[in-house]
Hints:
Elements: H1 3-11, E1 20-24, H2 40-52, E2 57-60, E3 64-65, E4 77-81, H3 88-100, E5 104-109, H4 119-126, E6 138-139, E7 160-163, E8 168-171, H5 186-202, E9 206-209, H6 256-268, E10 275-279, H7 286-294, E11 302-304, H8 316-329, E12 335-337, H9 347-350, H10 355-367, E13 371-375, H11 395-400, H12 436-439, H13 443-448, H14 453-466, H15 468-472, E14 474-481, E15 484-490, E16 495-501, E17 507-510, E18 516-518, E19 533-536, E20 541-546
Residues 31-33, 35, 37, 39 line the site of magnesium ion.
Amino acid sequence: MNVQTSKHLAQDTDWWQGGVIYQIYPRSFQDSNGDGVGDLQGITQRLPYVASLGVDAIWISPFFKSPMKDFGYDVSDYRDVDPLFGSLADFDALLTRAHELGLKVMIDLVLSHTSDQHPWFSESRANRSNPKSDWYVWADPQPDGTPPNNWLSIFGGSAWQWDSRREQYYLHNFLTSQPDLNFHSSAVQDALLDTARFWLERGVDGFRLDTINFYFHDKELRSNPPLAPEERNGSIAPSVNPYNHQRHLYSKNQPENLVFLERLRGLTDQYNARACLGEVGDAQRGLEIMGEYTQGDDRMHMCYAFEFLGPDPVTAQMVKQVFNRLDTIGKGAWACWAFSNHDVVRHGTRWQLSDAALRTYAALLMCLRGSVCLYQGEELGLSEADVAFDDLQDPYGIEFWPEFKGRDGCRTPMVWDTQDENAGFASVKPWLPVSETQREIAVDLQERAPGSVLHHYRKAIALRETLPVLKTGTQDRMDVAADVLSFHRTNAEQEVFCAFNLGEENAALTLPDGPWENVATDLDGAVELRGNQVSLGAWEYCIAVKREEQ
Ligand code: BGC
Ligand code: MG
């Protein structure tokens, strides 16, 4: 380890606060061994590019041993790398290289469920009396043979699957091949904490914790009540999914979870400068649960929010409402915001954004209180790829096609090289087709074009990195006038005023007493101030620092 690296690692225990995390979907980032599927060595090769973006950390979606029914979110061995992605030695090399480049590495722990191929499940399903018989959620049928209650799987149908060996149902919140672990068993909790310890010992800087609010289910297996149509929203599951018709009172969000999260945090805190990012998926109570999970110092460091991942474009009013709610019901919460990820339609397409709008949203994301996740290819302004039914891989898409096309359109290979047949991703035909539209805006081309979206993202990230107030300052005086959202970010040293026009109408603004100095001069869409006055055209914005009077 060189001096610079050890300094970086030792000093910055709060690196996650306001940090920018770049999400890598390993299947689709870079193939290194010519099998058309991305892998760990491929990621390592591309780390200098990731570091050049100026981000603080990477989060790698699961690369553990898996039958890949849910592309790695179905783990059959938590302590090994799937051969498709490489080996543990490849992971160690990745980690070392990332640290040399000043990047933290977060891995994606899928603790709520395993694959049905995990040895724990094979043992548990064998009979009702084996030592792991209660490691999963088993329940007898109702007298008429139907499932124990009305819980639904997000991926379609009942959350209960019949198993003829035990003549019982087992619970799965996702695919039938993803049986849900029983967190009411302390042996299960211990085994999972051991898993986390294994990776902490290997030197990972943190965890993205998959479906963290699904860990516990109601012990009494009570049925969920229905949810009125006007309360439904498509932030977790598409609107055609009946999962939205229930209030998930009993199938997730159980109070016992807090105690487990405290155990997990206690373990993580035995290591220096590690961070936990919990994914909280709940269409109604997401922010409230985020508050419960991140307030104080003894649960999660931050929670991943779905608020800006929904189908409706993020408006000025919406941002204000989200922060107001967070400050009311989740005071002290630490959110991690994202516009895109491997589960949703890329936001340029989802919100039908113009080039200017896309750039403005990038700048906005870098100015918000909380931490930030960027999804691979977001920095290129990629739109959703069109994947034909015949090329579809995602079981979720196959189930709800064509009203919901699944998640393949945001998982197509990263586009590195415009000229290359496979966009520089692989030397052979990739597991999902390269999008021709995306290839036209590949990395190599954008690197050479000073006005590209890629360079804009770099500048927006750099702004956040050079103004610590944008990472950890308070955020207040949030105001909405027409489509303009404005707010202040403040810490002991600095005050920053931000105003974003998230619409097409011109707007004029008078800033509070200054003097103010424009700090976003090189960002596309940012405008100059005239004294305390600023005029914002369509999708323009202003970011200004208050200067001490001479
Ligand atoms: C992940 C999905 C995955 C699901 C089940 C999530 O929320 O992000 O990709 O299918 O959990 O593990
Ligand atoms: Mg490969």
